[in-house]
Design a protein that fits this description.
The complex is a heterodimer of chains A (518) and B (423). Chain A is of the alpha/beta class. Chain A contains 23 helices and 15 strands. In chain A, the strands form four sheets. Chain A has a five-stranded parallel sheet with strand order 11-10-9-12-13, with helices on both faces. Chain A is globular, with a radius of gyration of 26 Å. Chain B is an alpha/beta fold and 423 residues long. Chain B contains 18 helices and 15 strands. In chain B, the strands form three sheets. In chain B, strands 1-2-13-12-11-14-15 form a seven-stranded mixed sheet, with helices on both faces. Chain B has a four-stranded parallel sheet with strand order 4-3-5-6, sandwiched between helices. Chain B has a four-stranded parallel sheet with strand order 8-7-9-10, sandwiched between helices. In chain B, strand 14, helix 16 and strand 15 form a beta-alpha-beta unit. In chain B, helix 11 runs parallel beside helix 18. The chains are: A alpha/beta (518), B alpha/beta (423). Chains A and B meet through strand 1, helix 2, helix 4, helix 5 and helix 18 of A and helix 2, strand 4, helix 3, helix 4 and helix 5 of B. Chain A: Keywords: 4Fe-4S, ATP-binding, Bacteriochlorophyll biosynthesis, Chlorophyll biosynthesis, Iron, Iron-sulfur, Metal-binding, Nucleotide-binding, Oxidoreductase, Photosynthesis. Chain A: It comes from Bradyrhizobium guangzhouense. Chain A: Its cofactor is [4Fe-4S] cluster.
Chain lengths: 518, 423
């Protein structure tokens, strides 16, 4: 058993729902007890979809368990087929139905419906949401994809333009709607045609034509990598490795796509509306240099965020982690390149302890980290699912492509104080307005976690213990603007601790400042 | 999935359906119960789905550390129950070390824990012995195979009844109000009962586990919520007697509810009127403001919390609303007898659910307002229906005189909003 307060991912059948809901002409019959229907509200409330997910639940109850739950499942399939007339059906079990072992695959086969029925086996006690989405996409593509009419060489010579599929965007995905628009524009500008987008808006008939394209673009490896690998093995379709998040990665992505299509990338790169790189070079951004940033999210977004932070904004990555265990190796490699140890965990309390220990100046994380950062008084920007209603903005707000890089620049930099503003604050810090009670854009003052009565004890790192401050040093510390004071206190105490200095004087404060720098 | 029409009494046609239910399971009750009992912790023994459900239901994600958590069962826990029990002990020890402020721990059963027959009552006994007297450990089921939405509260309160202190045979006559109410509502009722001269009044659940009410044959209990079948049964076992009444929704409902208690405690009729009339008049004024927006409007209620029938009675009698269909997950005739007597005789009731067929009926009837769960609301709005989320009727204080106007406003707001938005 694992003690869990909040979870980063839902169960695997929610991943399957994300695929079914993204598609058209598919219906998912889920053997599940009543209550599991809560998952509908993820789509209708969080994502604000205007339709119910195409899911029928058997909603069995205790009284059904002694009887014919298998019959219930068959009735649900038959009625769903009659009512919704889908082109293909997914059938599977949630965690409870998995235990009663009704064999959805066999029952579906026995019904002999005149459409493809794809049974899903999603082990609920081992796997989670993203894996469930990946497995579902793979199973449905595997069941429906036809071998292409022409072999790749013939196809290539017959067609004037290259064709690629876009794989990965789902319902309830973090900015998938806008990423898809942005990447589509990028690829079309290159002079490449888009074949099938899957699962987003795809029909079962569309999936059958996936193998016709020249190559696949994998937008979200957590969801589409397994499928792309299978398509490569089966139909010799290459797929892209670069995820176009950030200006640098977008340029690499354009090169990679152009190479796969055998064309010149210059056209797409020339027209790019790329402001973020220039903004990062502009003098107002110099204050961003070495800002200490902590990154946590799904593997793809976390790795991309760390790369942008380090290479495109000049931050210092002090922590990097992910809840995507399937991609832990990639995250560890990335972390090593920044000289930090990756944090691979599903336990948000562990993430909170790490953030509290590192005291970064910016947190890039999920909605959970946003909450952690808020409590610690640290600026934060959201970079990854799990999704919150705020992650489905009314405006166009991609993460991918050149516009995505612009969006990211704004989203990450705005929670910080602007450069000139920060400089002026330093200059005028003796003025009455710049004291602790002056209004701050960060809202209330940070609450130390250990003092919060609703919160369990999180051990503070040992560096905090053991030293006392002279009144004079304490007074000097209070002259430092509040938003960097915590770091100054911490650095000084660590400095004192390491040198066995029991009493922190004015001299210790400035010795520590000299030692640590800014 | 069968549908049958059953005639129960004169003019009372109830459509009974069994099909897909679009309702929460009993685990959802934790979302309000953990706010109510301030030193209690709710540990769901379940799957990732359970954790995800509570997280999604809890105000569509509020990321503070709450007083609930899930012990997520994994593959190896399913292999052997002995190991599962060891694991549970380990998790509870870990939790109580982290949260020394907890005095009452509920182990909450889920669908998977029940299917594998993990005996949480034995676990609760074992852990109670281990952590007594600092922490008391109880258990109940919030599983979807046993409980529908508010039945989780029923199961929770029923698990508390056996540990309530015994009122001796010579104890004075006392009143127990049963069902979680918002603190503000509870305080209003406390003041009201005091003004009526009923002095020994307590509430279940209490705000702190150290303030458990005493019960016994001298206790009369009054239900504040219509979904407390098991709790009522457990109280009867302790010798308590139920005061028959409708539920305290609306001005009329609150008055009749209070009067039932007043009669039981021999409060003088003139005194009762003197105390309640000004409050009743104020509530009527508050409700009256919304009557122009609601009178003559046609409402369809999907089954959700079992408070649909008292709500429908309030809407029909105090606001002049036409009732198209009143859905309820269960119809508990005994506890709802006083409510059913007040409903318009032509009102159509449905018990249970087959959500697709019910949606067909709803579209066919084209009501002015649909009261439904979060999974249905936006899709129905997109189809052109005005909707009211039923879950708000559980999370918002709606009982009593001072909330009667707020309750009316909850139904008026979607209609007002639609009228206001230009595009």
């Amino acid at each position: 058993m694992q003690l869990t307060v909040w979870t980063y991912e839902g169960p695997p059948h929610v991943g399957a729902m994300r695929i079914a809901t993204a598609m058209r002409g598919v219906h998912y019959v889920l053997h599940a007890p009543q209550g599991d229907t809560y998952a509908d509200l993820l789509f209708t409330m969080i994502e604000r979809r205007d339709r119910r997910p195409p899911v029928t639940y058997t909603t069995f109850q205790a009284r059904d368990l002694g009887g014919d739950t298998a019959g219930l499942l068959q009735t649900a399939m038959r009625e769903a087929y009659a009512r919704f007339a889908p082109q293909a059906m997914l059938v599977g079990a949630s965690c409870t139905a998995e235990l009663i072992q009704d064999d959805p695959a066999g029952l579906a086969q026995a019904l002999d419906l005149p459409i493809p029925v794809v049974p899903l086996e999603l082990p609920s006690y081992q796997r989670k949401e993203n894996w469930g989405a990946s497995e579902t996409l793979y199973r449905i593509v595997r069941a429906l994809a036809h071998p292409p009419r022409e072999s790749p060489p013939n196809r290539r010579t017959k067609r004037a333009r290259s064709v690629c599929n876009l794989l990965g965007p789902t319902a309830l995905g973090f900015r998938h709607r806008d990423d898809l628009a942005e990447v589509t524009r990028l690829i079309v500008e290159l002079g490449i045609d888009i074949g099938i987008v899957a699962p987003w808006d795809a029909t079962p008939a569309d999936l059958s034509r996936l193998p016709e394209a020249d190559f696949n673009v994998v937008l979200y490896p957590e969801i589409a990598l397994t499928t792309a690998q299978w398509l490569q093995r089966q139909f010799n379709q290459p797929y892209t490795r670069t995820v176009p998040i950030g200006a640098v990665a977008t340029r690499q992505f354009v090169d990679e796509v152009a190479q796969l299509a055998g064309i010149d990338p210059a056209r797409a790169l020339a027209g790019a509306e790329q402001r973020s790189s220039w903004y990062a070079r502009s003098v107002d951004s110099t204050y961003l240099t070495d800002k200490r940033v902590f990154v946590f999210g799904d593997a793809t977004h976390a790795i991309a965020a760390a790369r942008i932070a380090a290479n495109e904004l000049g931050f210092k990555v002090v922590g990097l982690g992910s809840y995507s265990r399937e991609f832990a190796r990639d995250v560890r490699e990335a972390a090593a390149s920044y000289g930090v140890e990756a944090l691979i965990t599903e336990d948000y309390l562990e993430v909170e302890a790490r953030v509290s220990e590192l005291q970064p100046e910016l947190v890039l994380g999920t909605q959970m980290e946003r909450h952690i950062a808020k409590r610690l008084g640290i600026p934060c920007a959201v970079i990854s699912a799990p999704s919150h209603v705020q992650d489905f903005p009314a405006r166009y707000s991609p993460q991918m492509g050149f516009e995505g890089a612009n969006v990211i620049f704004d989203t990450w930099v705005h929670p910080l104080m602007m450069g000139l503003e920060e400089h002026l604050l330093g200059m005028f810090r003796e003025d009455a307005e710049f004291n602790d009670t002056a209004p701050s854009h960060l809202g209330s003052q940070p609450t130390p976690i250990a003092d919060s009565p609703t919160h369990g004890p999180i051990a503070l790192p040992p560096a905090f213990a053991g030293s006392t401050w002279t009144a004079e040093a304490e007074q000097e510390l209070h002259k430092i603007p509040f938003f960097v004071r915590g770091k100054a206190r911490r650095n000084t105490e660590r400095f004192a601790q390491e040198r066995n200095v029991g009493l922190i004087t004015l001299e210790t404060l400035y010795d520590a400042k000299a030692h640590f720098g800014r | 999935m069968n549908t049958r029409l059953q005639s129960c009494s004169a003019g009372d046609n109830v459509l009974r359906e069994r099909g897909q239910r679009e309702v929460f399971c009993g685990l959802t009750g934790i979302v309000w119960l953990h706010r109510k009992i301030q030193d209690a912790f709710f540990l769901v023994v379940g799957s990732r789905t359970c954790a995800h459900l509570i997280q999604s239901a809890a105000g569509v994600m509020i990321f503070a550390e709450p007083r609930f958590a899930t012990a997520i069962m994994e593959e190896r826990d399913l292999a052997g129950l002995v190991d599962a029990n060891d694991e549970l002990d380990r998790i509870v020890a870990q939790l109580l070390a982290r949260r020394p402020d907890i005095k009452l721990l509920f182990l909450v059963g889920s669908c998977p824990s029940e299917v594998i027959k993990l005996d949480l009552s034995r676990a609760a006994l074992r852990l109670s012995r281990q952590f007594s007297p600092a922490v008391r450990v109880l258990n109940y089921s919030g599983s979807g195979i046993e409980t529908t939405f508010t039945q989780g509260e029923d199961a929770c309160l029923a698990s508390l009844v056996p540990v309530l202190p015994e009122a001796g045979p010579k104890a004075p006559s006392s009143l127990l109000i049963v069902g979680a109410l918002a603190d503000v509502v509870e305080d209003q009722f406390r003041r009201l009962f005091a003004a009526l001269g009923i002095s020994l009044v307590s509430f279940l659940p209490p705000r702190r586990s150290t303030e458990l009410p005493t019960v016994g044959p001298s206790t009369h209990y009054l239900l504040a919520q219509p979904f407390l079948h098991e709790t009522a049964h457990a109280l009867e076992q302790r010798g308590c007697k139920r005061i028959v009444a409708p539920f305290p929704l609306g001005s009329e409902g609150t008055t009749v509810w209070l009067r039932a208690a007043a009669i039981q405690f021999s409060v003088d009729g003139a005194h009762f009127n003197a105390v309640t009339t000004p409050l009743r008049e104020r509530a009527d004024r508050a409700i009256g403001r919304y009557r122009p927006q609601l009178t003559g409007k046609r409402i369809f209620l999907f089954p959700d919390s079992q408070i649909e029938i008292p709500l429908a009675r309030f809407l029909a009698r105090e606001l002049g609303v036409d009732l198209v269909e009143i859905g309820t997950p269960y119809l508990h005739r005994e506890h709802l007898a006083a409510e059913l007597a007040l409903l318009p005789p032509e009102a159509r009731l449905s018990e249970g659910q087959d959500v697709e067929r019910q949606l067909d009926r709803c579209r066919q009837a084209a009501p002015d307002l649909v009261v439904c769960g979060l999974g249905l609301a936006n899709p129905l709005e997109a189809e052109g229906f005005a909707t009211k989320w039923s879950i708000e009727l559980i999370f918002t204080p709606i009982q009593g005189y001072e909330q009667a106007g707020d309750l009316a406003e909850l139904f008026a707001r979607p209609l007002v909003r639609r009228a206001r938005l230009v595009a």
